[in-house]
Amino acid sequence: MERKVANRVRSQRWYLRFPRAVPVGIFLMVSAITALSVYAIEQVEIQRSDAQDRQMAMTVRTAVERLAGAHVAYLKASAALLSSEGEVTRGAFRELADQVAKDDTLRGGGTLGWSLLVPVAQVPAFEARMRKEGETDYTVHPRTADTSVLAIAYLEPHGPNSVAAVGYNFFGDPTRRAAVEQAIRTGQPAASGPITLLTDLHIGQLDGFGIFAAVRAPARGGEPSHVVGVLARAFHAQSFLHAALAPEQLNAYGVALYDGTVTGAEGAPLAAIGPQNAPSHRLLRPIEVAGRAMTIALSPPPGTTLSNLSILTLLFGMMVAALLLIVARLVTRQAAEDRAALAWFEEQASIRNSLTRELNHRVKNTLANVMSIVALTRRRSDNIDDFVAGLTGRIRALSATHDLLTQSDWGTTPVQSVLGAELSPYAQESDREVVLRGPHVELAPNDALSLGLAVHELATNAAKYGALSIPGGRVEVSWDMMTEKLARIEWRESGGPPVAERRRSGFGTELIEKIVAHELKNPVSLRFDLSGVRCTLIVPVRQPVAFQLRQGAPDSAANS
Question: What is the model's pTM?
């Protein structure tokens, strides 16, 4: 039966044989779908973030170029205005500076200066004139080997921090000189490289740049147009960047302004706002400020590990996966329990059928034995009392052996137990001796019944006529294994009355020599010696088989 159940289970589908695989598979599938969804959402978020970064970079670039373009346009217009006036006076320059200061589109600029181009021979006279106009310590500096100087004459706003700038010769600084020469050569305003602002010398670092516009005197009286001076404006790079970009509008972005073209991890920027990322995580945008190439570096804000939508999707997916896991596990467990219960009911039904057939077989055998005992007892009895007494004893012997078989669930029964059940009443007599000796041997149910019946007849005969009928009598029963499948049981009586040489064959003799021999399928040797009865029985020892599983085992049924 166990083999049949196992074969039936193995023949089921894999998801029925492995109930935990279905819930785990569902959980993994939903988890995979959730992971793919989160991945897709994150890819969209990355694309959206990249587009936002590019849009912000364009906005920053446009704002910086717009502010720089406004200053360039105003300087160009102012240079044209000064060129038409012929000679620039302090009053005219101050009025021009006031207009620049009032124009909100020109925010972020520093001092505005007017420089005259003066031949070296005329420098003393120029210095004297400027001192006469109120600049008591006016001196052109630094001096160079050039034939002319480009010295600052007027500066607005003019304060304590700008004293050192008055009289400064632009030709004395290579960076400023290159920008001035470019402005003169091209006729367009030109921006310088990084410079130390003259009004912020105490800072001691390259913190700004300047834009220079050449002013030309118009051609008159046959003389060609020539440069008379330069209109310049200084820019503190940090202030310029703040003026172009409102920090609150950057939304946690970082912006840096570099001079020239930036391709990697260059040096310190001219100005920076907000946090700065590593070079590999920045967006670089080239710009042009008054003809000079510069670079805007945009540092996007650090992104979160997962977006809010991804977190919600992940949480919801895990909740759904866990719920489906629980539901699938409950369903598969219930299905497994139902299948186990069905298999158990089938097994119990099979066992019940086997028990019924086994019981029918046992009852038939027992009834056959009873009928034989009744028939033989009737033929051998002279009166009703002898018939009842003989029949009762023999039925009681069958009952005692049946009790043993019932205790063992009709399985195998030890020889020792069968002999003890039949001889226990006689073993209690102190003046008689009953000895049982032999190894542990198990007998099949029918063989145990036959042995019990034979021992009952031998014990009854010994109690009436043999060793158990008088004090000092002795009965010894020994057994051993002849082969793996046969056991030999020997009955010996001694110390009893002498056995008569001529005696009538009784029912017990016929029962042992015919019925028991037939049931055991082996001959029985029964001898009536003068010293006592000798009986040798050959009992088969069969392979023990569980009683409830004898269905489908015809050999076991026949042997039992």
Answer: 0.57
